[in-house]
Amino acid sequence: MILELASTTPSDVMRRVVADLEVDEGLTAWPIRLRGRLFVIVSGDESRVPDRVLNQPGVTWSSTSERGYWLVDAQHDVVGDTVTVGSSVVGGKSFWLGAGPCALERVDDAVATAAEVAAQDADAFRIGLWKPRTSPYNFQGRGAAAFDDLERVRAAAGLPIVSEVLDPRDVERAATSFDCLQIGTRNMTNQALLVEVGRTAKPVLLKRGLRSTIDEWLRAAEYVVAQGNDRVILCARGIASFDTSLRHQPDLSAILTVRRHSSLPVIFDPSHATGRLDAVARFALAAASAGADGLLVEAHVRPDEMYRPGDAAQAYPPTGLKALREKCRVVRDLTSELDAGVAAS
Ligand code: PEP
Ligand code: MN
């Protein structure tokens, strides 16, 4: 359940409301402020919330039992439709581009890739320190040991850094370095991690879980926003399918569906969605047509040098990024034109 209190509610009154809710051992409550509005998030059995709280003057309440999300629901107009990453904007009129290698491996390659990605006018540089791997025998990323090298890469890129965090214990440190905290597909349902990134002031790039429904994805976004961080960017990245001819099944319809339910910006990762270089541009354009606000693309100057097994087969040449983004913009605008024509007829 969500309570909304007048934004001018004195803090002692707000604290009393929270205390009154937590008298019941089954309820947990905490206040958050979003865009000038004051909410108390109540977690637990809604039927146990006492009437004296619900009927208090100045308090309005909304049930969250039906959908499991409320703050990210476009109908409630709480979250916006743009999120800033560094000085770039995701959502609205821009067609955003984040690109870079899978992992920070050899520093020279990362620096060269960063410089080229920046020369292509990308908005952000993506690179992993911690890598989620299916097998414990594969390269796990250089982790916290690579923070110093990341600074060299950052200097070469001059771009905000988007990087994945796997462990709630690393979030505080990561938030001092990364400009955007990525939650990977395997961690979309890691609620402890979602809560932790929700407690930071950094934008969160939330990938869709491989086997998660769109409702579950939006509930994961709600976990972050319910901690007071409304800077969530959704990222579709393909889902598991019975057919494995591509790495995953690009889930372009998810972009459309998310748009219907939430105003949060949604981007697409054509690299992890397909796993193939020859599919990246095709599905990037398809995502632009489906209404994506931008792309997250894996790019590397020397894919042959990448650690194996890894994502070399999908690494896009950074020199092609500018054209890719330009063509995506054109396709997005063409689709909007067609939509406007239909709406006007
Ligand atoms: C990544 O972007 O490097 C990554 C591991 O992506 P995903 O979580 O979508 O597999
Ligand atoms: Mn990768």
How would you sum up this structure, described in words?
This protein is of the alpha/beta class and 345 residues long. It has helices at 11-22, 51-54, 107-119, 147-157, 171-177, 191-198, 214-225, 252-261, 270-274, 277-289, 321-344, and strands at residues 2-5, 28-34, 37-43, 60-62, 82-85, 88-91, 96-100, 124-126, 161-164, 180-183, 204-207, 232-236, 266-268, 294-298. Helix 6 packs across helix 7 (214-225). The two termini are 42 Å apart. The structure holds phosphoenolpyruvate (PEP) and manganese (II) ion (MN). Manganese (II) ion is lined by residues 102, 272, 298, 311.
What are the salient characteristics of this protein?
four-stranded antiparallel sheet, 345 residues, binds manganese (II) ion, single chain, globular, 11 helices, binds phosphoenolpyruvate, alpha/beta, eight-stranded parallel sheet
Strand-helix topology:
Layout: E1 2-5, H1 11-22, E2 28-34, E3 37-43, H2 51-54, E4 60-62, E5 82-85, E6 88-91, E7 96-100, H3 107-119, E8 124-126, H4 147-157, E9 161-164, H5 171-177, E10 180-183, H6 191-198, E11 204-207, H7 214-225, E12 232-236, H8 252-261, E13 266-268, H9 270-274, H10 277-289, E14 294-298, H11 321-344
Parallel strand pairs: 7-8, 7-14, 8-9, 9-10, 10-11, 11-12, 12-13
Antiparallel strand pairs: 1-3, 1-4, 2-3, 5-6
Helix pairs in contact: 3-4, 6-7, 10-11
Bound molecules: phosphoenolpyruvate and manganese (II) ion.
The site of phosphoenolpyruvate has 9 residues, from loops.
